[in-house]
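I am still learning, so can you show me any protein sequence you like together with the matching structure tokens, please?
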Amino acid sequence: MKSVGRLLAAAAVALAAMVPARAAELRIGLDELTRLVQSIADGTSIYLNSAPGGLFTSYSYIKIGTQKFDLPPLGKDFPKGGSTYAYHVKDMSSTSIRVAAVNRALRLTLSMESDGPEAVPSCVSGECPLLAFLPEIEWTRPVISIDFLPVHYKGSVSLQVKDVIVGGVPQPVCRQHSDFWAKTACNLGRAFANQSIAKFKSELPKTIKQVVNQPEVQQRIADGLKAYLTVGTAGAVSIEAISVASNNMTVSFRFSAAQAK
């Protein structure tokens, strides 16, 4: 877990005889960085819920460590027969997380629970006589993959979202109805459900990228990694630049003049 720190510590010994304040470079494999980030990422989770609820209802957020960052509500309104309906994501939580190195990035893959419907219709305005007959949306093997690129951030290292991929198979499912008109209403509602699925899969990646890349969250990630950039008695290092290749990153860093003496 502290292997990156040990690498920097070894570099610190080599730097001891060098001219103070000269920058040094260290190459770190993305596999090595993956193991470090996995230990930090264990406290990361995503919760998705935009269904209307009571006073104590929790809505969508991403959690990094002990801090939660709200995600904007995800929903798709549509008018029908003088009423307005909407589909809302309902109570989806990440159940596991794994980190892997991909091309020039680290990929966090969060598996989401898939018990019961993952999105349900609701009434926004009007009498909504079709509400009881609209299909629910079930999501088979839902996953959210977030590709992070290591970046230089205020003298430290942070992880900036490069891409987000929503995986799994969402599909409208009609509830059991024996009535012909109920079945007809549900089949008509499939088009609206599919529109909601398309909007969700296009908007969620943008939302996650926007929230995680904001300065407050980037600072939170940098603070989490900063502890691993302190090399024993040599103290903290200041990262000056980072370059990322296909399977490793090169970190340019220096100690302060006082530490280098």
